[in-house]
Write a structure and sequence with these properties.
Blueprint (H helix, E strand, L loop, with lengths): L12 H8 L3 H7 L8 H14 L5 H8 L4 E6 L6 H15 L3 E6 L7 H12 L5 E4 L6 H9 L4 E4 L9 E5 L1 H14 L5 E5 L5 H16 L6 E4 L4 H11 L9 E4 L2 H14 L9 E6 L12 E4 L2 H17 L8 E4 L2 E3 L13
Parallel strand pairs: 1-2, 1-3, 3-4, 4-5, 5-11, 6-7, 6-8, 8-9, 9-10
Antiparallel strand pairs: 10-12
Helix pairs in contact: 1-2, 1-3, 5-12, 6-7, 8-9, 10-11
C-alpha cells in the first residue's frame, strides 16, 4: 500500500474493499458494531483503512439502518458518588455490545409539562435507540413521555407502576431490614432514620424495610428527619436530630452514603460524639469513598454491576425486537458491608 491519501474525506468503503481484495459487505461488517468478521480479515481491513485515511460515517450508517447505536443516559446530578460509578459501569457494559452513551445532566424535577417536553425533544433529536433514566429526582412524567415516543426506556434505581416501562432497582426494602437487624443486634435502643427525598421510591422502600425490620425485633423508630439526598441538608438534619444532647439517638440509618458523610462530620467534628461508641451509623450504596479510612462506613451495598447488566439486557432486547416487548422489572439483591461505624456483635459501647 502507498502513502495515506490526503483526500481522506473522499475515501469510500469501495476503495478499502478494492485495496484488500474483499467484498464491500465484508468491509462494511468490520465497521458495524457486533457484526462477525474473521480476525485476520478484520486486521487487514483496519490496516488498509488507516493507510488510506478512511473514516466510517456513523451518521450515514444511522440513515441506512435506522439505528444510531446511541443510548441516552439521563441523570440529575453527579455529586452523589453512586452515579459516577453507575455511569462507568453502564458505559462499559453498553460498549461491549457496540453502543455509545450520550449523557444528559438535568436537575429539573419536571413540575411543568413544558420542561418534560423540552428535555425529551432534546434527547430524541439525537435519534437515540433507547433511554436510561437514572435519578431519584426524575419524575414519572418523563418516563411516560419516553414510553409514548416508542423509544425503549429503563428507569434505573427506581420502581414504577407505569405500564410499558422497564425498571431496575436494588432490593431497598430488604436493605432497610438488614440495617435494622444489624443495629438492634449491636445494642441500639433509640434509633433514628434520615430519609432521602420524600417522594423517591428508593428512600420510601428503605424506610419501609427499616421500620418493618425494627418492628419484627420489637423496636420502633424513635426519631426521623429528611436530608433530601444532599450532603449539606443531611448535616442540617443531623443537627436537628441531635440538638437534645441528653436524649439523642444512639444509632442512625441514613438513606445513602453521600448524606452519611455529612452526618458523620457533624457527629464527630461539631458535636464531639464517638462513632460508633456513642452513635452507630449505617448507610446505603457502598460507594468507593465509603471504604476510605476517614469514614469506613458500614453500609448496605447496591450491586452496580448486576444492576447495569440487567438494564442493558432489557434495552438490547427491546431494541432488537420487531414487536413491542412486555416491560420487565429487576430487583437486585443487596448485602451488608460491615466497617467501623457500627460495633461488633456483643461489643460494649464504652
Amino acid at each position: 500500500m502507498g502513502k495515506p491519501n490526503q483526500r481522506s474525506g473522499n475515501i469510500t468503503l469501495e476503495d478499502v474493499a478494492q485495496s484488500v481484495g474483499m467484498s464491500i459487505s465484508t468491509v462494511s461488517r468490520t465497521f458495524t458494531p457486533g457484526a462477525s468478521v474473521g480476525k485476520q480479515a478484520r486486521a487487514k481491513i483496519l490496516t488498509a483503512a488507516r493507510v488510506l485515511g478512511y473514516r466510517p460515517n456513523a451518521i450515514a450508517r444511522t440513515l441506512s439502518t435506522n439505528k444510531s447505536r446511541i443510548v441516552a443516559l439521563v441523570i440529575s446530578y453527579l455529586h452523589n458518588q453512586f452515579y459516577p460509578t453507575i455511569i462507568e459501569r453502564l458505559c462499559k457494559r453498553l460498549e461491549l455490545d457496540g453502543f455509545h452513551v450520550l449523557l444528559f445532566v438535568n436537575e429539573e424535577t419536571f413540575s411543568h409539562e413544558s420542561q418534560t417536553d423540552d428535555l425529551l425533544l432534546d434527547i430524541l433529536g439525537y435519534q437515540v435507540d433507547a433511554i436510561i433514566l437514572a435519578s431519584s429526582l426524575i419524575s414519572s412524567k418523563l418516563a411516560k413521555r419516553c414510553r409514548d415516543s416508542a423509544t425503549p426506556v429503563v428507569m434505573f434505581n427506581r420502581v414504577s407502576r407505569l405500564r410499558g416501562v422497564n425498571t431496575v432497582a436494588s432490593d431497598n426494602f430488604a436493605g432497610g431490614q438488614l440495617a435494622a437487624q444489624a443495629l438492634v443486634e449491636r445494642g441500639a435502643n433509640r434509633i433514628g432514620f434520615i430519609a432521602g427525598l420524600e417522594q423517591a421510591s428508593t428512600s420510601i422502600e428503605r424506610e419501609r424495610g427499616f421500620i418493618d425490620g425494627l418492628a419484627s425485633l420489637g423496636r420502633s423508630l424513635a426519631v426521623r428527619d429528611c436530608g433530601h439526598y444532599d450532603l449539606q441538608k443531611a448535616a442540617q438534619a443531623a443537627r436537628r436530630m441531635f440538638k437534645d444532647s441528653r436524649h439523642h439517638p444512639d444509632a442512625v440509618f441514613v438513606a445513602n452514603d453521600h448524606m452519611a458523610f455529612g452526618v458523620m462530620d457533624v457527629l464527630r467534628d461539631e458535636l464531639g460524639l464517638r462513632v460508633p461508641h456513642d452513635v452507630q451509623l449505617i448507610s446505603f450504596d457502598n460507594v468507593p469513598q465509603s471504604a476510605w479510612r476517614g469514614y469506613a462506613l458500614t453500609t448496605v451495598e447496591q450491586d452496580a454491576n448486576s444492576m447495569s447488566q440487567a438494564a442493558v439486557s432489557m434495552l438490547i432486547q427491546s431494541i432488537q425486537s420487531s414487536m413491542p416487548t412486555k416491560a420487565k422489572h429487576a430487583i437486585v439483591p443487596v448485602r451488608l458491608i460491615e466497617r467501623r461505624t457500627t460495633l461488633k456483635p456483643n461489643e460494649p459501647k464504652n
